[in-house]
Amino acid sequence: MVLSKRVARFNKVATNRVLGRAAPRLPGLAMVVHQGRTSGRRYETPVNVFARPDGYVIALTYGPDADWVRNVLAAGGCEIVSKGETIRLTDPRVVHDEARTDMPKRVRFILARFGVTDFLHLRRVD
């Protein structure tokens, strides 16, 4: 049970606007900066990010069909703003992992409760 479309719409309208201001400065959070597939418009979406040696992993709490995920996949990458730093990322790939192995143990438990098993892996551009 990934979070519902109804929750996604509410977050897009309400929560993201509030969280969006804080996300680039808080640990564990980032703002994904991506471009619309057809509009070409710039979008910013707050997400939880987890650093890996070569890049980042994002739990897809709304599933791999969320607009921002599709935008990042179509563009072949994105930027994130985390802790005040802008980081370019490339090679996006969706990974289905029911064991949630790339997540910290505490996070695995929470994601399991919501049935999250898809993750977006991105490689940092050197």
UniProtKB/TrEMBL annotation:
<dbReference type="Pfam" id="PF04075">
    <property type="entry name" value="F420H2_quin_red"/>
</dbReference>
<protein>
    <submittedName>
        <fullName>Deazaflavin-dependent oxidoreductase (Nitroreductase family)</fullName>
    </submittedName>
</protein>
<dbReference type="InterPro" id="IPR012349">
    <property type="entry name" value="Split_barrel_FMN-bd"/>
</dbReference>
<dbReference type="GO" id="GO:0016491">
    <property type="term" value="F:oxidoreductase activity"/>
</dbReference>
<dbReference type="InterPro" id="IPR004378">
    <property type="entry name" value="F420H2_quin_Rdtase"/>
</dbReference>
